[in-house]
Design goal:
The protein is 48% helix and 14% strand. It has 304 residues and is α/β, with parallel strands linked by helices. It has a single domain, classed as 3-Layer(aba) Sandwich (Indigoidine synthase fold), CATH 3.40.1790. Strands 1, 2, 3, 4, 5, 6, 7, 8, 9, 10 and 11 form an eleven-stranded mixed beta sheet that branches. The protein is globular. It binds pseudouridine-5'-monophosphate (PSU) and manganese (II) ion. Manganese (II) ion binds at residues 137, 139, 261.
Length: 304
């Protein structure tokens, strides 16, 4: 097994028994424009520290798997162009070829597990894309949740996805999809989706206990926590739906495919919403980071 390179902060947290929360880096390189990407990454790390936990942003830099980036490394990644977007399929080649790449949800889960980190905060996971019955575009994030034991806190699946199909695939794969504090599945920029979440839990403790029970049952895989965006930051689905439809139509017209789809749609929605989608995206990632820190603390109180 390879040993990830731990940042000084993560090493100190380990020594002190401070809980650690993993963060992905594709959201920095492919999910948000510069310079808000770096500012957000820093703010989110600070939110985790304020909750008494330690942030560990994960990326592959020059052929090494980093768990925790120092401020310089974070800056360089946020300004770099043509950084690879790494999922399960790409990680080994990138490392073996001494490459640099940002980790998606799937790749971040793999790295978190290698580093013994049990909780990970992001914005939204990948899922089943609209038109998947023809394109077969289903994110590797879903398979990863089925096999890698990390609790992932997101704000629901992005409304650019086919949400009912995403829930169906997660159910087939045996992934617990747990709405936090409400019955409905949140839809990233909005608190509501019109879909009932399969499961609901109301406290970090309850989420931590469920994770331990899953392991005690001998089941592989993680849990998906869908944490609704704070009410004051949400953009209602009715406002966003025409924008999402226009972005999807542009992607179809341009023949955008595979890995390029999610970054393309996020950028188009950012432009068409005149930046509103980004403001909401930042608020929901921060909200997820705070909850993840509390879950990490609760897990620390229960033997693993
Ligand atoms: N959430 C965001 N912005 C993003 C992503 C998630 O708010 O850019 C990224 C994550 O890294 C996720 C990836 O794993 O999009 C999914 O990409 P794909 O659909 O190609 O699997
Ligand atoms: Mn895809």
């Amino acid at each position: 097994m390879i040993t990830p390179v731990l940042s000084a902060e993560v090493q100190a947290a380990r020594a002190a028994g401070t809980p650690v929360v993993a963060l992905e880096s594709t959201i920095i390189t492919h999910g948000m424009p510069y310079p808000q990407n770096i500012q957000t990454a820093r703010t989110v790390e600070e939110d985790i520290r304020t909750e008494g936990a330690c942030p560990a942003t994960i990326a592959v830099l020059d052929g090494r798997l980093h768990v925790g980036l120092d401020p310089d490394q974070l800056d360089r990644l946020g300004q770099a162009r043509n950084v690879a977007k790494l999922s399960r399929a790409d990680m080994a080649v990138c490392l073996a070829e001494s490459g640099t790449g940002a980790t998606t949800v799937a790749a971040t889960m793999i790295a978190a597990r290698l580093a013994g980190i049990e909780v990970f905060a992001t914005g939204g996971i990948g899922g089943v894309h609209k038109g998947a019955e023809l394109s077969f575009d289903i994110s590797a994030d879903l398979q990863e949740l089925a096999q890698t034991p990390v609790t992932v806190v997101c704000a629901g699946a992005k409304a650019i996805l086919d949400l009912p199909k995403t829930l169906e695939v997660l159910e087939t794969l045996g992934v617990p999809v747990i709405a936090y504090g409400q019955d409905e599945l949140p839809a990233f920029w909005s608190r509501t989706s019109g879909l009932k979440a399969p499961l609901r839990l109301d406290s970090p403790d309850a989420i931590a206990r469920a994770q331990r029970m899953r392991a005690a049952l001998g089941l592989p895989g993680g849990q998906l926590i869908a944490n609704p965006i704070p009410a004051e930051d949400e953009i209602e689905l009715s406002t966003l739906q025409p924008i999402i439809d226009a972005a999807q139509a542009a992607a179809d017209a341009d023949g955008v495919a595979a890995k390029a789809v999610t970054p393309f749609l996020l950028q188009k929605i950012f432009e068409l919403s005149e930046g509103r989608s980004l403001v909401a995206n930042i608020a929901l990632v921060r909200n997820n980071a705070r909850l993840a820190a509390r879950i990490a603390q609760a897990l620390g109180g229960i033997d693993g």
